[in-house]
Amino acid sequence: MNSEFSHQGGSVQWHLGPVIDALRTSRESTHNIRHQGRVRELPSRDVVRQIVDGISAALFPTHYGRPDLNAESIDYFVADTLNVALDRLAEQVRRALRFSPEFSAEHDQTEDAVLAERARAITREFAASLPGVRALLVSDVQAALAGDPAATSVAEIMLCYPGTIAILYHRIAHCLNRLKVPFLARVAADIGHSLTGIDIHPGAQIGGSFFIDHGTGVVIGETAILGERVRLYQAVTLGAKRFPVDDSGALVKGTPRHPIVEDDVVIYAGATILGRITIGAGSTIGGNVWLTQSVPPGSNVSQAQMRNT
């Protein structure tokens, strides 16, 4: 049975003619939700996953690449893997740029050649940032090894710890966000969320030696700022307390609304910290604490204390 016959037969069998017509009307006019009302090439989640896998392999060839690499072959592997990943990235950046505010309706006719060149420039900047990204990731892995008594090796942390995978995705997504490709950054961040159950907005600023232990259910909002050597446990939320609106009632976006967590802070499981407050350096926030006010450096905040305030 050919596909055309099967399709037509199915349309007749299920009386799909009116349904298809109604869906077309919804899609084209009544409920058109396309960007600026037009069809766009969307970034591909599958390709973005391949890109992050390739970059991960280039950053840590023997952990995420090939186990048979040696001193003579490793640079060739890194070069080839990066070339493939960056070629794919440039195309995904080009697609994502169509959704940038810079290319609004009046600039909608921007030539593909212009977008492609911009995408290549962004991809070159991204590639140049990779040594710095790797340095941050190494500090994160070392923090996990130092902070978890159950950790036996760097290899175990890199292959088995969801927090490490989530941070890897975040470091890459944050770099894309900083290079003003927020749509693509969100795609990468959401893939990391799907893999680990850890939700980090790519806009969040996170210092080095960051460790998420266990990690399931951790949420870190867009404007959160975390210092050096911060440690979080599972189900911690660094969220917003309220969402300001403008005169028309629409949400005001991009305003600072998430916590600032200073250096050397530990936040235990289930703690919820909301609003643009500051957790002072060296503080410890206990499990299941609900915190909406700043605390000074060196504080120890427990659930019992919060019930009595």
Features:
single chain; 309 residues; alpha/beta; 5-stranded parallel beta sheet; 14 strands; globular
How are the secondary structure elements laid out?
Elements: H1 3-13, H2 17-30, H3 45-59, H4 61-65, H5 74-97, H6 112-147, H7 154-160, H8 162-178, H9 182-196, E1 199-200, E2 205-206, E3 211-212, E4 219-220, E5 225-226, E6 231-232, E7 237-239, E8 260-261, E9 266-267, E10 272-274, E11 278-279, E12 284-285, E13 290-291, E14 300-301, H10 303-307
Parallel strand pairs: 1-4, 2-5, 3-6, 4-7, 5-8, 6-9, 7-10, 8-11, 9-12, 10-13, 12-14
Helix pairs in contact: 3-5, 3-9, 5-6, 6-8, 8-9
What is the string of SSEs from the N terminus onward?
HHHHHHHHHEEEEEEEEEEEEEEH
Instruction: Classify the secondary structure makeup into a structural class.
Output: alpha/beta
Report the sheet with the most strands, covering strand number, pairing sense and barrel closure: 5 strands, parallel
Instruction: Let me know the number of strands.
Output: 14
Unreliable segments (pLDDT under 50, ≥5 consecutive)? 1-5
What does the average pLDDT come to? 90
Q: How much is the radius of gyration in Å?
A: 23 Å
Distance N to C terminus: 73 Å
What topology, given as strand order, has the largest sheet? 1-4-7-10-13
Overall geometric form: globular
DSSP helix fraction: 40-55%
Strand content: 5-15%
| Tally of helical segments | 10
Oligomer: single chain
Quickly describe the structure.
The protein is α/β, with parallel strands linked by helices.
